[in-house]
Amino acid sequence: MTQTSLNVAGDFPLLGRTVRDGKRLVYLDTGATAQKPTAVLDAERRFNEKHNAAVHRGAHQIAEEATEAYEAARAAVAGFVGAEFSEIVWTKNATEGLNLVAYSFLNATLGLGGTAAERFRLAEGDEIVVTELEHHANLVPWQELAAKTGAKLRWISATEDGRLDPASFDVIGEKTRIVAFTHASNVTGAITDVPAVVDRAKAVGAYTVLDACQSAAHLPVNFTELGVDFAAFSGHKMLAPTGIGVLYGRGELLEAMPPFLTGGSMVEIVTMEETTFMPPPQRFEAGTQMVAQTAGMHAAIDYLNNLGMDRLAAHEDQLAERMLEGIATVPGIRVLGPTTPENRLAVVAFDVPGVHPHDVGQVLDDQGIAVRVGHHCAQPAHRSFGVHASTRASAGVYNTNDDVDAFIEGLKQVVKFFG
Amino acid sequence: MEQLYQQVILDHSRERSGEGTLENPAGQSFQVNPTCGDECNVQVNTAEGKISELAWTGKGCSISQASLSLMYEMVDGEPVTEVEELGETFRELIHNRGQELDPEKMDQLEDLGAFTGVGRYSARVKCALLGWMALRDALIQAQDGSKEGSGE
NIF system FeS cluster assembly NifU N-terminal domain location, by residue (chain B) (predicted)? Predict the structure, then answer.
């Protein structure tokens, strides 16, 4: 073991189970969803056993405790991503966070939000820029927004090794109003040079929206330093429960933005004719929120902070390197993405020529190895590689060199079985 | 693994029968499996209550491609009512969680019995049935068409 290796699988109860007739589980599908440490499971249970009540309403002790837990989790998230407390909005997942931004732009375009929101209005001739490597969650909402407002959707293309092509950054121009892009591709694992995109967007006065789903769980991330206007990520990919996500929005922008979902908890004065809205973040948190999940999110962030994101990133860098080296020893495998370990995550999608990903995944599954097969919610990214679907191995904090070695052995079995 | 990937499935996924297109199909159906993006297009003509022409194109895993290929061999030229019955029996097999059906039905299925093991893997059920879904849909269109065609 090198000194960058972590050994924490024991903290994750699910990883102790067996699959397919007693085989050790080798979980390499963290890019889809991460397993949860005992600390997270306990935090959620403890909240429900001791502190469960509606937040921001009610004057009883339990309601106060619930509200404190809910807001303490927000503070933990803010600290984790270099944001101010009021810049963190709870959502159910990253998809909702990205839709929240898109719908707020739409609502502003419809005239809601008054003069403060005029800056978000879109018109025909405006352009929204995305990239070919986006997860559908950071592509489809912008297609929809373009269709509703008459704005034109343009995109940054991908290079042959699955990175954003700087040569195509010139699609960001004077007409660009929004640039939505991923921090790290969930297919190729490539980490985006965020400042390069942000500088370009800022130069033309466009807003930037970062999909941080893959990055927030695996790298030290500071949205303020990155200079993005909005960013979204999901709890379930970073050891926290499902049903909890985060939208970061630069304070000044959230202040000016009209809400997306409306209803209880986000209002000041409601008459039969009209309603005034709370300041952010409450303005964007309509209805009863996923409070127990925020307690789980808080525990996940504490867990990650205790390990140290730098150590975690170094651990996963080493796994990525081992995975790439291992795959290179299996004849014929084509990696969809960078084949070298710099500026990439331990997320490796690949094609086994002549063998469909479903079949690859099935043979791996038979050996207890869990990977993702299909298009990973990124059909255009696959199309850019000229394939329909792929198999993807993605590592997390709990994976070990043994897991990677088992995966490589499994891959050799795949080639043998279908060869 | 060998239980799932029977030799007949591996063979049909490599050497496929019936791949192609028809000039003027009376019925055709395009089906996709949204979880993996697999797709197939089945085209059919009927005459005198039988399948007179059948062709398919598709891309997907070995299970889906072998299912299409074997389906072609089993049903091309056969009476539509028997094909529909066979399709029902095959659907029953695939939903039977990896267990064989009664011997009479297994006889009816012939080589399709090789797909028995697919039923153990819920994620693969759709792979085996994709082609048959397309065939059922295409046959409905072809027969509606022939009824219209035979009308005064």
Answer: 5-127
